[in-house]
Design brief:
334 residues; four-stranded mixed sheet; 13 strands; alpha/beta; UDP-N-acetylmuramoyl-L-alanine:D-glutamate ligase; globular
Length: 334
């Protein structure tokens, strides 16, 4: 692996401050009920959590925006949410975090997604989701598509992220339209996919599935421990989808990056894993910033892998800490 000294890594992190990132996708609220467990319910064999704290955080594509913001970049969110109580809370959270709301639209046809997690001690015990997953209608799609194009130009987007959670904000028609637009404007596109639209992202620059998503999306089972087999799958997928680079997260195995010039497996660093929630958001954020700076695929994968591991040490969905990531990158002499 190419060695990077601490000066070049610091310069890279400073360069992140100049990146404008457009994020298209499903935004949501991550709600937390924190408490302690001291007994089992007499009504059913389940633990009773005595709540000591309640908290609401930006989630989904909005957590990607938070990761980008903490890295010093300028994130612009584009999505459609409900015209409900959840939307008021969401806009308040955006304002509190000093994030732009100019790409967010309300619709009476939608529900603002809220994922409520019950945390007992330091462990997630239950999650309750309030949401709808139907795709946005044609009128909503046209409004969102036009606003994305408008903001990409006015905000001088350096990279576009599709943050797909299968909640309906992203449709095949929207993908096709925006990918073609981005190519015309020479803006790289990055995808964090889910199952429904997995094969709709033809022509994107970087595609980042996790192993489960890759197997489900391709309807294939393969031995991911066999690097040759993983390489074969990636090669076929890139050719079929006309994708430049595929970046596959492999949990405790690390991350695999593959394009026409680079094929590399980056091992994971040993961590005290508390919660994997939001790790994918962090990985795609760092990968997008690296792509905007035209960094090497290996360095991109290495930094993204490192960042994803660091956020897993935190309980709940939380963005990466820029100083912690920089210090760790220098310590490991990336």
């Amino acid at each position: 692996m190419q060695q990077y000294n601490s000066t070049s890594i610091k310069q890279t992190f400073q360069a992140f401050n100049k990146i404008n990132v457009l994020i298209i996708g499903d935004v949501m609220i991550d709600a937390y009920l924190w408490g302690n467990v001291n007994r089992i319910s007499p009504e059913a064999p389940v633990p009773v959590v005595s709540i000591s704290k309640k908290e609401n955080r930006l989630g989904g594509a909005a957590n990607v925006a938070l990761n980008l913001q903490t890295m010093g970049a300028n994130p612009i969110l584009c999505s459609i949410i409900g015209d409900d109580g959840g939307s008021k809370l969401f806009f308040n959270l955006l304002k509190k975090q000093k994030l732009s709301a100019k790409g967010i639209f309300k619709s009476k046809n939608r529900t603002t997604t809220i994922k409520t997690r019950v945390i007992g001690g330091n462990y997630q015990m239950l999650r309750v989701d309030d949401e709808i997953e139907t795709p946005i209608n044609s009128k909503e799609r046209e409004i969102l598509t036009e606003q994305i194009k408008k903001l990409a130009i006015s905000e001088k987007a350096d990279v576009i992220i599709f943050e797909d959670y299968d909640k309906g904000s992203i449709t095949p028609e929207l993908i096709k339209n925006i990918v073609a637009f981005a190519k015309q404007k020479n803006i790289p596109t990055v995808v964090d996919p889910k199952k429904k639209n997995f094969l709709a992202y033809s022509g994107v620059t970087l595609f980042k599935p996790n192993l489960k998503e890759l197997k489900e999306g391709l309807k294939l089972d393969f031995d991911h421990n066999n690097i040759k087999e993983l390489e074969k799958i990636a090669t076929l997928f890139i050719k079929k989808q006309n994708i430049n680079t595929v970046l596959i997260t492999l949990s405790e195995k690390g991350i695999y990056t593959h394009n026409s010039k680079t094929k590399a497996l980056i091992p994971a660093h040993i961590r005290n894993i508390s919660d994997v929630s939001g790790a994918g958001d962090t990985v795609i954020s760092i990968a997008a910033l690296c792509l905007a700076l035209n960094l090497s695929p290996t360095l991109t994968a290495t930094l993204a892998n490192l960042a994803g591991g660091l956020v897993c040490e935190k309980v709940g969905v939380a963005p990466i800490d820029k100083k912690q990531l920089l210090d760790e990158a220098i310590r490991l002499q990336l």
